[in-house]
Each structure stands twice: as structure tokens, then as C-alpha cells.
Amino acid sequence: RKLLLVSKSNRKKWLSLERTVNLMRVIKTLNNSLILCLDKQGKEVILMGKGIGFQLKKGDLVPADKIQKVFKLDSLSDALKKDYIKLFEAAPDDLIICVKRIIDYANAKFDFKLNKSLFFTLVDHLKHAIERSQKGIVFQNRLLIEIQKYYPKEFEIGCYAIQLINKKMNVQLPEEEAGNIAFHIVNAQSEQANMEETMLSVRALKDILAMLGYLFPEKKVDKDSMLYLRFVTHLQFFIARMIKKEELPEKDDFLLASVKQRFPKEYRAALKIKEYVQEEMGASANQDELLYLTLHISRVY
């Protein structure tokens, strides 16, 4: 009788959810908003819903009306799947809710859906940003003015995100973080990018990673780790800046001198990357670009 009171499209959606979600069984509660489940094909999924993890325990069937979002994990490697699960277990419940609201807000601003991986990358980034803020550590975003100029819509989403998180989680994330969030939004639009630039970016990323593999043959890199994924994301942003002939504003090179001394091999690798983008794109990577490349390489290689 209830089905007769809803629209045909909503009835179809409700029945679809009933057939699929009600057959899901809880494996593990990650927090109040997220649970790890097995679907009817026996594949792991993460289900999101307000308070969904509060009373459910291992082996329980999941009520369809509690589900707000389903994250499929079958496309992920076992190592990356474990990283995501650990991330969600460690993330505050309020942060999960905030990130969902941010992505819903962002999706409403575009004529296309943002990459689904944005949820994971934003939770990861914002969790660390909040931890740094609570310790009084602030990383200056030296592209803030450029982000505001070239990505105004994405920056506005970033500002919305900062206001939401500061209010809901009682923290004081600075405006710089709005710029960082904007970059994540830009990156989540990769499928919509200019095809020529996309192909150049993909080729450059492949070449640089191959170069690093050659320069560090003894290092077995865990390509499914969060550290590696953060490094690849940094490279994507770096390549995008090189393609557009943008660069980080330079500052005092004292820190770079210290990093060069501590990580000489990694710094030489960063110089090789600089030579590559100069030859392939006619772009010049300045001292700050070399600094951040060296630091990222030292963490992964």
C-alpha cells in the first residue's frame, strides 16, 4: 500500500534497493556512519548512512532505508582496500558526514558527476589537515591567488567546505585549505579535461614514474599505499602546472638547501624531472617545485 503513495520512479528505486541492499550482511562497523558489508555476490562494499553503524553488528542484514550511499571496493587492490578501511575507522564520524555534504554541494555545481574517488581523497586530506590545525601547524598554499583566479567555482566549494568543517568540528582550518580542497575538486574532474592536455598529462606521469623506477631500482614501491597515491596526486598537480606554464611562487631557499643535503639522491631525481618537463613541455620547475618533489620522492622511494 505504501508503494502506491510514491512516484513510479521512486517505487522502482525503492524496490531495487530492497532487492540488493537487504541482502547485504555486516562484516564490520567502521564508525556510526559507515559499515563494511558483503553484497549478494559476496563482494565487499562500504555502506554509508546516518547512524547506520550504531546498532548493527557482524552478520546482521542491513535495512534498505538506512542506506544513503554505497561504495564498491571490488575495483581496488587488497592493499588499497585495507588502507581505505583503516582511514574510515580512524576518521571522525562528523568528518564523514561533512565530506558527504561537501561532495553533494560540489556535484550540484556541475553538469557532470565528479570522480567517485573524491570521497576517499577528501576524507584523507581533511583528516590530516584537521590534525595539523589542532597541533598549530599551517602549510601555506602558495597558489591560493592563482586558484581563486583560475578555478573560482572550485574555490567557492572549498570555502563552503572550510566553513562547514570549522562549524561542525569546532576547528579553525585556514583559507589555504579552501585552495587545497579546490585542487581536489579540479582533480576529480579529470574525465572532463581537454583531451590533448589529458593525454600529455597521462604520458608525462607515466614517463616520470618510469624514470623514478629506473633511478631507484633497489626500492620496492608499494603502489597501493596511501603515500604513493598522495605522491601521484602531487605529480598530477605538478604536471598540470607545467602544462599551463604556472609555477609555485618562490620563497627563501634555506629549506631547499637543507633538504638537498639530507636527500641528495632524491634531489637529483627531482632535477631529472625538471629536465624532463623543460624538454617535453618547455616549462621550468622552480626551487619550490624541486623542494616538494624531493620531499615526496624521499617518502616513497
Unreliable runs: 1-7, 17-21
The major β-sheet equals: 4 strands, antiparallel
Report the span from N to C terminus: 62 Å
Report the order of strands and helices: HEEEEHHHHHHHHHHH
Overall shape: globular
Instruction: Supply Rg.
Output: 22 Å
Oligomer: single chain
Give the strand order of the largest sheet, numbering strands 1, 2, ... along the chain. Answer: 1-2-3-4
Question: What can you see in these coordinates?
Answer:
The chain is about 60% helix and about 5% strand. With about 300 residues, it is α+β, with helices and mostly antiparallel strands. The protein has a four-stranded antiparallel sheet with strand order 1-2-3-4. Helix 3 (about 95-105) packs antiparallel against helix 6 (about 150-170), helix 8 runs antiparallel to helix 11 and helix 11 crosses helix 12.
Question: What's this, in brief?
Answer:
The chain is an alpha+beta fold and 301 residues long. 59% of the residues lie in helices and 7% in strands.
Layout: helices, strands, pairs:
Elements: H1 8-21, E1 25-31, E2 34-38, E3 44-48, E4 69-72, H2 78-90, H3 93-107, H4 118-134, H5 144-150, H6 152-169, H7 175-187, H8 195-215, H9 226-243, H10 254-262, H11 264-281, H12 287-300
Antiparallel strand pairs: 1-2, 2-3, 3-4
Helix pairs in contact: 3-4, 3-6, 4-7, 5-6, 6-7, 8-9, 8-11, 9-12, 10-11, 10-12, 11-12
